[in-house]
Amino acid sequence: MDKKILDKNFDFANAEQKIYAAWEGAGAFRAQNPLKKLSDAKPYTVMIPPPNITGSLHMGHALNNTLQDIMVRYHRLKNFETHWQPGTDHASIATQQVVEKKLALEQTDRHKLGREKFLQRVWAWKEESGGMITQQLRRLGASPDWQSERFTMDAGLSKAVTKAFVQLYNDGLIYKAKRMVNWDPKMETAISDLEVVPTPVRGKLYYIRYPLVGGGDDITIATTRPETLLGDTAVAVHPDDERYQKFIGKHIKQPITGRELIIIADEMVDRTAGSGALKVTPSSDPNDFKLYQKHKLGIIEIFDKTGHLLASDDIPEKYRGMERFAARKEMVKDLGDALVKVEDITHTVPYGDRGGVPVEYLLTEQWFLRADVLAGPALDVVKSGKVKFIPETWENDYYRWLENIEPWCISRQLWWGHRIPAYYADDGKIFVAADLASAEDLAAAHYGKKTKLTQDNDVLDTWFSAGLWPFSTLGWPDETPMLKKHYPTNLLVTGFDIIFFWVARMVMMGLYFMKEIPFDTVYVHALVRDEKGQKMSKSKGNVIDPLDLINEFGADAVRFSLTALSSPGRDIKLSMERVRGYRNFVTKLWNGARFCGLLLGDEIGAVKVGDEAPTTNNPINGWMVAELARAIKQCEQHLADYRFDYYANELHHLVWHEFCDWYLEMVKPILQDKQRADYQETADTLLFVLRQILIAMHATMPFVSEEIYQHFFASGDKDFLCNQVWPVWQNKYDHGSAHDYVGRFKELVERARSLRTTLQLDEKIILPVTVGGQDSWADSIIALAGLRRVSLEEIKKPENKNIIAIPVQGATFSMGLPNDLDMAKMENLLDKKLAQLDKDVAVTKQKTDNAEFMKRAKEEIKKELLDRLVILQGEQKLLNDAKQVLLRL
Question: What pTM, to 2 d.p., does this model score?
């Protein structure tokens, strides 16, 4: 393509849309990439955590997918057969709620439509609006293989879900039973723990007197839910509580119904909570249900599935059918003298995240999976290191849940989802099979004749299908080539909040069905908080929309911000200013590349840039290539260690400081003189380094790097940076001597600049400095500090009476200062600067000399402190030398 000078500004809005369409249209993200030869390539596979079809991109998604994309693009550059599996989750309860709200606007509901027509409406909504988040992921620059996109209710995944259910049932691991579950009275379904939101609310604590049977004494209990006392079957106290020991084994009267309750003793009771006496309502509280099981108490069900009191003989007629909170108010009035007192309190109430109302704990008949059987192998693979968590601390959360796992309620009373493949005969006999015909065959074999069957109305918990995601998306239960090559997968990037609900279940399901782990590494990313470290929420008004950031600053700036701030174990404090700062870095790279074009002009098209570093004789070029090699090696290590922050910081330092601030300025005078012997070498090196930087940058800043590549290096419409090869030449490259040579002059320039600033010398004054040798390379460097090379004899001439020695690594330079310096003013400036330096050195040394602190500190903190101490002490020596010069004048 034609080579031309880059525009003055990077038009990210236009470039992002154009570039992404070109990538996707050419199949650049395919595992079997048509643009690369990958016949013998090793697989690298990442499974996207499938977002809900009801969802839109938030900062958690942006972080999660940016980190995945970095690893995917990096391995694509490393010539792996890279497969990033995209897809979306059907999100049963969330999606059904969205469609039901639309129906309500039409003054109808799902029951009026019937199941079949309602599901038609849901599918129509899904086709029209359910793919919004995948388009938003494209805006972010995510590069999964969109042509292999899956949906948890597509035909293939539905087949996998049915297969898994039937197999687990036949193996005795799925059963139906009546147990206590989280119940959402508004949505009228069981919900998972993840869908329960503990919410602090203002409420009341009611102290109620229960009289002892036979009179003469009473016990006061405390409750926040007086309406539940209709289901009381006991009162519990702690066996060591002296206040109540004499009552254990006696009976007490429930004040509303007069029902007699036994007083039991159990260590579960908290003596410090409320009155220390606990009313036991087994049908409405999980802990009370455990007491019921342990002490063989009675159980009385009081609520229906809509949160109303049952119309049963156990409920006084006055309250039957009454809504739960209305019943609370009425019952408080009816307690009369039995109500001792009422306290205003703040307490935590479980709310359903979709229904938005307090959850009830109900005894209902549900389908359960014996998760305890699957938990053992899932624990073993993490404890043995076959599956590792980063950071490792999250392993403890994983262990804690699996070691105390309860049966998994896998059924939901919804219509949208995978309908449970269980069929009932009129006598209640259950037949579980892949479809109705297969179930009828089972029934015929059982009854000896054809029998009418009715399918279970419930659907499966969304997390059931999500647990199969790493292999169902690759074709299981069929033996597909993709399944054979890409399972087990390599990396899972996820949030800590679904370690239990998704990560552990994928491990359990993968080991059970595939006999292999689903992935070997789980990277648990942090939360993205606001700039003050507060969790983002709509109520606080501090939510940052990633799409707003992309629109204002570009996807590259947003991605790089998240990358640079991703430190394991630390939440990200994000602000507009941080993103704006990294937008400036995008601009720095763009301007640096543009400057290359301005320096070389039409020569760009004549320079052949290969994958191998050019031969360098000029130490400036050798130094730049050495710095590039060092940085790329470091980037590789940082990505291997999942230190995304280190990777970003390495690139930032390389591009901003070494390439733009130093190298481009050092080679500028060389490239302005085409007659120089080192011109072609420098031109070759400049473009080689730029191309390698673009490759190294691409994983985190894909758009600006691709746009620059297309201008300078692309050889055709389908020659993309995203399909180039990660640098390998640096492993055999060492220019230590050039690094030392240029390093000395860089240090000289930095010290001279520092001294000039401290002494407040006019930037226009060119200062003389001694530099040995006859090479012209040094002139390109020292000119950056406003220095002019002179001989030692010249600088010692009588008129140059103010001379200062500047020590640098392995050398000492002599620099002349103006003869008309105001000595008193200069000495005062130096004293002030030295006083501050002495203080900074003392504070830093206090930390570095503290053995206990250094032992506990993280490696990056220790390195930062030690590097800072070296810099501060160097400044101390320089200014002390300058002061001594001034004192001698």
Answer: 0.88
